Amino acid sequence: MISQHEFQVATKGRGTYDLSSDVQRFVRDAGIESGLCHVFICHTSASLMLCENADPSVMRDLESFMSRQVPDGDPIFSHDAEGPDDMPAHIRSILTQSDLNLPVRNGRCALGTWQGIYLWEHRYAPHTRRIIVTVQGD
Amino acid sequence: MISQHEFQVATKGRGTYDLSSDVQRFVRDAGIESGLCHVFICHTSASLMLCENADPSVMRDLESFMSRQVPDGDPIFSHDAEGPDDMPAHIRSILTQSDLNLPVRNGRCALGTWQGIYLWEHRYAPHTRRIIVTVQGD
Amino acid sequence: MISQHEFQVATKGRGTYDLSSDVQRFVRDAGIESGLCHVFICHTSASLMLCENADPSVMRDLESFMSRQVPDGDPIFSHDAEGPDDMPAHIRSILTQSDLNLPVRNGRCALGTWQGIYLWEHRYAPHTRRIIVTVQGD
Fold first, then answer.
1. Smallest Cβ distance to C2: which of A34, A51, A57?
2. Is A98 on the interface with B (CB under 8 A)?
3. How many CB atoms lie within 10 A of CB A10?
4. For A83-134, how does the pLDDT look when each residue is reduced to its tens digit (9 = 90+)?
5. Which sign, positive or negative, has the C-alpha torsion C8, C60, A68, B68?
6. Tens digits of per-residue pLDDT, C57-110?
């Protein structure tokens, strides 16, 4: 059995957005007990990740780290038509994930205690991001 | 329903190779309307990614960035039997993807407007790379 | 057909642990000829990767590289309640994979000759890590 669903996330610009409850709700509604849940983002300047979900300092540290690794406005980048965050957004997306696949057990995503599903917006400006969730199983 | 297919890509050495039309053609031929398309590369020195597909400067910037992050011939690497690009190729593969999973809707991969499917060859020399595509769904 | 299985790996602290034979055994026992095998780690401070499986120096070089990229005890990190390896473990997990999806052909994971499936423990201390394997196909 396959169940597919598209939804949108309105971001307020660079930062992380917790999708865990949206995804869990869709899995529950799909009525699949055992299988897999696939989450996909249809963009190359925002990405997905599983990350620690308890301490907000993790997200701040993660942003500090990534900003240092992939500096906005780095002079080695020539692709900057949309600004200093343009090329870094593509690289941040490639270094993280555009799709996540999660086991479904007992009718829900079997995430670990500290695992949350996050959208990471890499652009400064607010964007509307399309997400496609596909649940398959029995 | 599951449909599986293996094909080869002859690379000309380090650089990116657009697989989007190959993958889309296979999905179309599989006759699956709704489901998932999985793309896998059977190697540890070339990898896969979804990346911006419109401006060639993105690929050049991406290569500049990765070459700086994972320098060829870095003296911290001892695994260099096949040359200065040997260990960097493994690390570049690990920092990107060996498998991509893409939603299939209306009989095709539901990629975003700017998303292309790329093979990234990390070795200097030309290589023959094996790709396995698996489409499943209804 | 879907077959799901959970097992645990007792790590001895930071380092890589080869899961290839565990995963291959489960695929064989599942009796699925053609499809996909999904491997998931239920943690945010240990991760999964496909990596070269022949020369032990690859793992040492990989650890040297990652330790330099994401330094333990880096003063930019404020999340250090569990020690200098706490935040780096989360970042290392995000830069690698929490889930891998592998093609199944002829009743086994169709890995390339040099591809091994590894758990990468990022914490110094030994941990018990939960892995969920899901095999689906015909």
1. A34
2. yes
3. 9
4. 999 999 999 999 999 999 999 999 999 999 999 999 999 999 999 999 999 9
5. negative
6. 999 999 999 999 999 999 999 999 999 999 999 999 999 999 999 999 999 999
Give the Cα separation of B4 and B6 in Å (integer).
Answer: 7
Whether chain A has a CB inside 8 Å of the CB on B52: the answer is yes
Residue with tokens 């419109």: B54
> Which of C49, C58, C114 lies closest to B79 in CB terms?
C58
pTM: 0.98
CB B30 within 8 A of CB B126: no
Predicted local distance difference test score (pLDDT) of residue B75 = 97
> Any chain A CB within 8 A of the CB of B101?
yes
What ipTM does this complex have?
Answer: 0.97
- Angstroms from B61 CA to nearest CA on chain A: 5
From chain C, pick out residues whose CB is under 8 angstroms from the CB of B90: 51-52, 58, 61-62
Q: Which residue has the tokens 């040297």?
A: C64
User: In the numeric block, which tokens belong to residue C95?
Assistant: 């830069």
**Cβ atoms within 10 A of the Cβ of C91, count?**
23
Tell me which residue has tokens 């870095």. Answer: B74
Give phi and psi for C56, each to the nearest 5.
-60, -20
pLDDT profile of chain B (138 residues), mean per 10: 96 98 97 97 98 96 98 97 97 98 98 98 98 96
Residues whose CB falls within 8 Å of the CB of residue B17, separated by 6 or more in sequence, listed in order = B9, B11, B118, B119, B120, B121
Count contacts between B and C (CB, < 8 Å): 86
Amino acid at B97: Q
Q: Does A50 touch chain B (CB under 8 A)?
A: no
DSSP class of B97: B
Min Cα distance C81 → chain A (Å) is: 10
pLDDT digits (tens, 9 = 90+) for C117-138: 999 999 999 999 999 999 999 9
Q: Which residue among A35, A60, A105 places its CB closest to the CB of C78?
A: A60
Q: Please indicate whether, in this complex, the C-beta atoms of C4 and A103 are within 8 angstroms of each other.
A: yes
